[in-house]
Amino acid sequence: MTTRILFVCLGNICRSPTAEGVFRALAPEVETDSCGTGDWHVGEPPYGEMQRAALARGYDLSDLRARQLAPEDFTRFDLLVAMDASNIENIEARRPAGNTTPLRLFTDYAPEAGMDHVPDPYYTRDFDGALDLIEKAARGLKASL
Ligand code: 4NP
Questions:
Q1: Test site for ligand 1: of 120, 123, 124, 133, most ligand atoms within 8 A of the Cβ
Q2: How far is the CA of 12 from the centre of ligand 1 (A)?
Q3: Cβ partners under 8 Å of residue 52, min gap 6
Q4: Domain parsing of the chain, residue ranges
Q5: Using alpha carbons only, what angle is made at residue 134 by residues 129 and 140, rounded to the nearest 5 degrees?
Q6: Which of 14, 24, 43, 61 has the greatest count of CB atoms below 10 A from its CB?
Q7: pLDDT in the model for residue 132
Q8: How far is the CA of 11 from the centre of ligand 1 (A)?
Q9: Is 35 a catalytic residue?
């Protein structure tokens, strides 16, 4: 059974910490974490507008801090969940030789949404739209376990 899930995006200040916050509320029995493939925001809390939009729906992200994907993550987690195809490329480029930990797109768990990625609200400014999609995918992911 999948018990440790790592959500991955680019900066780890918008999409993946929100996925972590939503999923841990939905499935507290699952060990969750998030990280970014980039290192620009390491040590920072989630982006202010993202935190405010999440808190308005009851998700407090204030304890989270950005970190970068590390080689150990491939063995510490049972499932890696990426927000878009470029995350997948970046993750695969860092996968240690011989590692086979499953890597999936988060939107695969919300086929009803008809999306092939979670648009980055850091750029789109659509924080509520990102939350809508993340909530759907979180429900689908939980149902898949
Ligand atoms: P995220 O969004 O990958 O959803 O955390 C980003 C936030 C900041 C940057 C990139 C993506 N940045 O390059 O600063």
A1: 120
A2: 7
A3: 127
A4: 4-144
A5: 135
A6: 14
A7: 98
A8: 4
A9: no
Tens digit of each residue's pLDDT (9 = 90 or more) over 17-55: 999 999 999 999 999 999 999 999 999 999 999 999 999
Residue 6, phi then psi, degrees to nearest 5 = -115, 120
pTM score, whole prediction: 0.98
Q: Which fold has domain 4-144?
A: Rossmann fold (3.40.50)
Angstrom CA distances, 11 to 21, 39, 133, 139, 144, stand at 16, 7, 18, 23, 27
pLDDT for residue 2 is more than 80: no
Tell me the pLDDT tens digit for each residue of 93-141: 999 999 999 999 999 999 999 999 999 999 999 999 999 999 999 999 9
* Closest approach atom of ligand 1 to CA 10: 3
Q: Is the C-beta atom of 19 inside 6 A of ligand 1?
A: no
Residue found under tokens 């400014």: 125
